[in-house]
Write a structure and sequence with these properties.
36% of the residues lie in helices and 40% in strands. The protein is an alpha+beta fold.
């Protein structure tokens, strides 16, 4: 059974990987069978396996500079091998400052070293509005550079 400290270390490793903005490190903390759910369901985002998540996430890396997550609260359920975290993020993009808020529930493997299921609740209104504006800006910039 995974110890409380191993669950905490795995969650900390995940946060460190996102703060490094390193796709390899982000993927390394996931089990080979990990699934990622971006919630709420009203966003209409499908559950993704590792390859789908990599394809979904990789195009975002160059759009955000100085991405940083801050853990605001963490709850560890050792018996269920789950870690729940409330986080905020900041970054800079072509359209200005970015900040968001998340609730993550990480389901951890029996050995406590990898994430098996990653449930990510985002501020759906802010995410939808901001990402739409950012994609429009990137598309216009691409057209201008042709």
């Amino acid at each position: 059974m995974a110890s409380r400290s191993s669950l905490f270390r795995t969650a900390q490793t995940l946060v460190t990987a996102y703060n490094a903005w390193d796709l390899g490190a982000i993927m390394d903390v996931r089990s080979t069978d990990c699934v990622n759910c971006i919630l709420p369901a009203s966003l209409g985002r499908p559950t993704m396996d590792n390859e789908q998540y990599r394809s979904f996430f990789a195009p975002n890396l160059p759009l955000f500079k100085g991405f940083h997550l801050t853990v605001l609260d963490i709850i560890i359920d050792e018996a269920a091998r789950k870690v729940a975290m409330h986080l905020s993020s900041t970054a800079t993009t072509a359209i200005g400052d970015y900040s968001n808020e998340y609730m993550l529930t990480l389901h951890i493997t029996e050995d406590g070293r990898k994430v098996d299921r990653f449930e990510e609740f985002v501020d759906s209104k802010y995410s939808t509005d901001y990402l739409s504006k950012l994609r429009d800006s990137v598309a216009q910039s691409s057209k201008a550079n042709m």
